[in-house]
Amino acid sequence: MAVEVRLLEGLDPEQRAAVTAPRGPVCVLAGAGTGKTRTITHRIAYLVQRGLVAPQQVLAVTFTARAAGEMRTRLRGLGAGGVQAQTFHAAAFRQLRYFWPRVHDMRLWQLLDNKFRLVMQAANKVGASTDKETVRDAAAEIEWAKSSLIAPEDYPAAAVRAGRDGPLLPAQQAQLFTAYEQLKNRAQQLDFDDLLLHIAAILEEHPDVGEEFRGQYRSFVVDEYQDVNPLQQRVLDAWLGNRDDLTVVGDANQTIYSFAGASPKWLIGFSRRFPEATTVRLERDYRSTPQVVALANEVIGAARDRPAGTRLRLSGQRPAGPEPDYAEHDDETAEAAEVSRRIAKLAANGVPLSEIAVLFRVNAQSEAYEKALSDAEIPYQVRGGERFFARTEVRQAMAALRTAAAHDDLGPDLPAAVRSVLHEVGLTDEPPAGGTARDRWESLIALVELAEELATTVADAGLPRYVAELEARAEAQHPPTVEGVTLASLHAAKGLEWDAVFLVGLVEGTLPIQYADTDAAVEEERRLLYVGVTRAREHLRLSWSLARSGGGGRPRRRSRFLYPLVPDGHPAAMPGKARQRAVVARAAAGTDKPECRVCGGALSGTMDIKLGRCAQCPADLDEDLLGRLKAWRGERARQLKVPAYVVFT
Ligand code: ATP
Ligand code: MG
Question: What residue stretches are annotated with the UvrD-like helicase C-terminal domain (predicted)?
């Protein structure tokens, strides 16, 4: 009883209602930082500790390996360590290993080791272009189709309906998709989506297997449910059968995978599907300072397509902190150098490096920051845990460690044993200066640190025990971590939190990304910014630069999302030249030229009227402003006695 009471302490009344709801459908719809993940982990622990469900009967799923690892850690801390918390894929893989041999009477096929190469072969076979970009984008189309449960023959119609902008004509993409499936099946290999497709099919088509499965797993929990795709939903339905012991939590405003087929419709429609569900809304933000919360509200408040029921406003619960900061830089190198200086300052003021993150839109942006941090000798790790075990140096290291463990002639003293094996695959005592050598070193040192961790937590830990731990982590895609600043994409940062967050490279073409060419795609980019902003507990800095490293290339403009956010009078409120141009234009016009409500710049006349947008920031002009602009143009034309269709700026 005492333990149960402790589990309910530190929860607010709404969270407590979700935690203590009887077994059955429960839905928590809430904004970022309101304690959704905390609520589900407490709920699992509560049900387990009250004896309402056995730990091994619970299956908790989420979308990234990192988030699953985080959930396992939280569950262990709550005394529910035996509960399986995994990604959809890891859970499906585990189940397939058990059921596949029984159903198909053969060993489970291998996981596809080089998808890119196979898609390239398929492209070649159907006479499509095999350049890198085409192959990569064609692979993404295949993933979208499989996640959306679209068969090759249905691809052309579905792609047109969904407005997909794939690299090939739909008919050829469909041929390529067919060829890819044939090549893969012939090689008896499975891609990631196959894991889900096969387990769903096995559970649906083999009643005995379904029954056995349902005897084993009785209670399901899904975190980040807003990002479930049709394939994952089908798997979830296959797991459930006609039962309803399902707890889901999510935030429709954090839907960031709809480009890949995900949809918040199942989250939003949950209480329609399960009318008897306990539905809880949380609005108190426990993660961030009121300053960060206010900014988050502003970012998402500007969203244009928020479905009903998702317009929650967060209210900050923490003490006040510093105002979010904005900065404009001449180029990326200067931006990265400043970020690294500020990180050093935060660290000097006692913020642990592991509590600091630099978040960006695309992985390529990471390089400038890796270099700046290496130069400043600040340790860092690049997120993307899923890829850790696929890295060449990690695979080599694991092979060497396995061999050493099999002979285990190095004795039990563990970190030193691991170090000595890793020296053989290139570990140096000192970190190399930067670049790929530094990356390799970071991965290897992470393996050493895992050994150190194990040596302090497990009595008599030797190499075999260590290798077993490593294999288990590889299977669960749960990489060891190094103490250091986190560099991560916004997608990989979902669900996580840090004391200090740097959102970098916020320029048009990057956020929103240049291929976001529909309103819906731009809105998804806005939600990514919302996800980024809401990762910060206290310090938040948003920055951008007007040129690439070295100043080359086309000039850049700051992201359109920033215009309503940067406060008036802030040095970064407006690029100097643009402000100057605006002032000059206004003086030249001699009348009050209307200003854009978003960026404050003078509107440029005919072009803006034609586009219905401000030419300096891409804000749409409302009717009132358009009317005033037209009136201004007429007046100006009258003064100059020229026809009104002349463009003035
Ligand atoms: P996201 O949408 O980003 O995934 P979330 O809703 O899952 O966020 P959590 O990660 O569960 O939020 O919680 C955010 C932070 O607030 C965590 O540090 C958590 O420990 C803390 N927190 C949650 N609920 C409470 C509470 N009732 N009292 C104090 N702290 C809380
Ligand atoms: Mg969460």
Answer: 290-538
Is 31 annotated to bind ligand? yes
Query: Ligand 1, residues 287, 496, 534: which to mutate, most atoms within 8 A of Cβ?
Result: 287
Say whether pLDDT at 135 is over 80: yes
Residue 146 and residue 183 in one domain: yes
Rounded CA-CA distance 33/530 in Å is 12
Last residue within a domain, chosen from 443, 476, 509: 476
Q: Ligand 2 centre and the CA of 473: distance in Å?
A: 22
Q: Which ligand is nearest to the CA of 296?
A: 1
Residue 393 has pLDDT above 60, yes or no: yes
543 Cα to the center of ligand 2, angstroms: 25
**219 and 256 within one domain:** yes
In a domain, 633, yes or no: yes
Name the domain count of the chain: 4
**284 exposure class (CB count in 10 Å sphere: 0-12, 13-18, 19+):** middle
Confidence of residue 583 (pLDDT cuts 50, 70, 90): very low
DSSP H or E stretch at residue 28: strand 26-30
Q: Ligand 1: residues within 6 Å at CB?
A: 10-12, 15, 30, 32-38, 251, 254, 286-287, 495, 497, 534
Between 419 and 572, the more confident residue is 419
88 and 214, same structural domain?
yes
- Cα–Cα distances in Å, from 630 out to 8, 564, 605? 61, 24, 8
pLDDT at 190: 92
Residue 359 within a domain: no
Nearest CA to ligand 1 atom 4: 495
- Region 189-195: mean pLDDT is 92
Domain interval for residue 595: 576-640
Q: What is the overall mean pLDDT for the chain?
A: 85
| pTM of the predicted model as reported, rounded to 2 decimal places | 0.78
